[in-house]
Amino acid sequence: MYLELKHLRAVRAIHEAGGLARAAERLNLTQSALSHQIKALEEMAGVELFLRRAKPMRLSPSGQKLLRLAERVLPEVEAVEDDLRGDEAGRSGRLHIAIECHACFDWLLPVLESFRKTWPDIDVDIRPGLSFGALPALAREDVDLVVSSDPEDLDGIVFSPLFDYDAVFVAAKAHPLADRPFVVAEDFRNETLITYPVDRERLDVFSQLLMPAGVAPRSVRQVELTAVILMLVASNRGVAVLPDWVVRSVRTNPDYVTLPLTEAGVTRRLFAATRAADVAKPYVAQFLKLARSEPVKLQRAASAG
User: Which segments constitute the HTH lysR-type domain (predicted)?
Assistant: First the structure.
């Protein structure tokens, strides 16, 4: 016996409509075409599926078995069909994001809050990309977008620039370096540097300043949360280097001082890596637009303060 979705739809329609005429209308078929479809199905099954003499037309015990199957299968099929139509129209889809920086949450969450209002049918998720290979996961389609400051030349992957940011030195107001116009690599030699718990190569202060100068801090203390890093800095337990959008909240706080790294400053660029085939999707384009604008708002707010 070879069952098709049209058979299940026909059985369900006749059961719900109570007769061939109304069921055919629901299915956009002629009554004759629907009658032939049911007859062919009964011949394949070798049993009667409907009690035709009953008014309204009722299912036989064998027909009831097909109805139960239709009620299980068809809603799932129809849900997938709706999703696919939404994908085709660009209204629905998936945006699973991996981020390669702890501090990115400070600007990413407001971006996603704005994004969901316009694209409520997009399935959004965030995964810290520091705990797995984010870019290989992107290529495998395990995630759909990677926020990174380290672009690579990869087939089928596009790195779209988001925004530039400055890495900023943060210390307690009473710290001996507080009166400096800027800090240099040597200034870290006798300091406890408080960082996020990631490899040194992934931290701007190491990759852009300390490693090229051959300088290491006296000690490194790793802390998971930005708020705890700032609390320890205010207590003069160490110093930190954070993106400018993070330090906006402490620039006017009398407990802190914020200084550039080197006289010229250390500026980095953040990128969104996506599969090339996804860049033109409307919701991806909208996310990139929001991801570019929100950090600028934070940076401007910090400068105004």
Answer: 3-60
